[in-house]
User: Which sequence fits this backbone?
């Protein structure tokens, strides 16, 4: 079946502009994660959605970052007033959501964001 | 908090050489352990995992054993191939309020023919 998809694959923006990144999880997966992959920081957790529960936003680096998940499926990560340090690859992952730490997370191809 | 330390690369080997990538962890609670791989131009994919002490995860000739006493999960392969060239990430998850993965920095492996 289809895997996790993300769009756009690449995004170039100017400092101070807002950007929206989209994630389509695997059908039937109730858990959805956003991670950021950057040269300096490696792979970092950003936010976690589980079904209709309130998201865990503990990894968001500042209040310029927000995310929503509509209808328990598609998710959008929004970065307001982008800064150059926001340049990174943003990865989305989904899993079945059975609340087991050993559950496999399936990753999308990522969105490469470059802030000029 | 949770953390993962893996050997820094890059690692360069000749085909058919033995591979070890070291990974140690610190965790609150009892973690599940993972190795993810990122091939050039592709997304992260699970390579193998282990969920309790002394479990051995294996896939595609790679193996890693969950060692609770040394808090380690070293990745090994007896004979690497050019197609194994990729970045390898060690990771853990402990559950609790969320099931996020905590990753190591990644190790770039290049295998030459």
Assistant:
């Amino acid at each position: 079946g289809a895997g996790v998809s993300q769009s756009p694959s690449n995004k170039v923006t100017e400092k101070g502009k807002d950007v929206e990144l989209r994630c389509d999880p695997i059908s039937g997966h109730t858990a959805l994660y956003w991670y950021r992959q950057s040269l300096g920081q490696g792979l970092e957790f950003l936010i976690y959605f589980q079904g209709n529960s309130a998201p865990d936003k503990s990894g968001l680096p500042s209040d310029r970052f927000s995310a929503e998940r509509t209808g328990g499926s598609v998710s959008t990560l929004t970065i307001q007033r982008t800064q150059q340090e926001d340049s990174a690859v943003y990865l989305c992952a989904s899993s079945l959501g059975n609340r087991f730490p050993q559950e496999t997370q399936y990753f999308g191809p990522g969105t490469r964001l470059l802030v000029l | 908090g949770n953390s993962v330390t893996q050997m820094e690369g890059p690692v360069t080997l000749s085909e058919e050489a033995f591979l070890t990538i070291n990974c140690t962890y610190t965790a609150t609670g009892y973690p599940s352990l993972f190795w993810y791989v990122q091939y050039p131009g592709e997304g992260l994919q699970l390579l193998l995992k282990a969920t309790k002490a002394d479990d051995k995860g294996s896939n595609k000739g790679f193996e890693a054993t969950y060692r609770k006493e040394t808090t380690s999960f070293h990745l090994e392969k007896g004979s690497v191939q050019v197609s194994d060239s990729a970045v390898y990430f060690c990771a853990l998850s402990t559950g609790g309020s969320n099931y996020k993965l905590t990753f190591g920095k990644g190790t770039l492996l290049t295998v030459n023919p």
Summary: Residues 38 and 113 of chain A are 10 Å apart (CA to CA). Chain A has a mean pLDDT of 92.
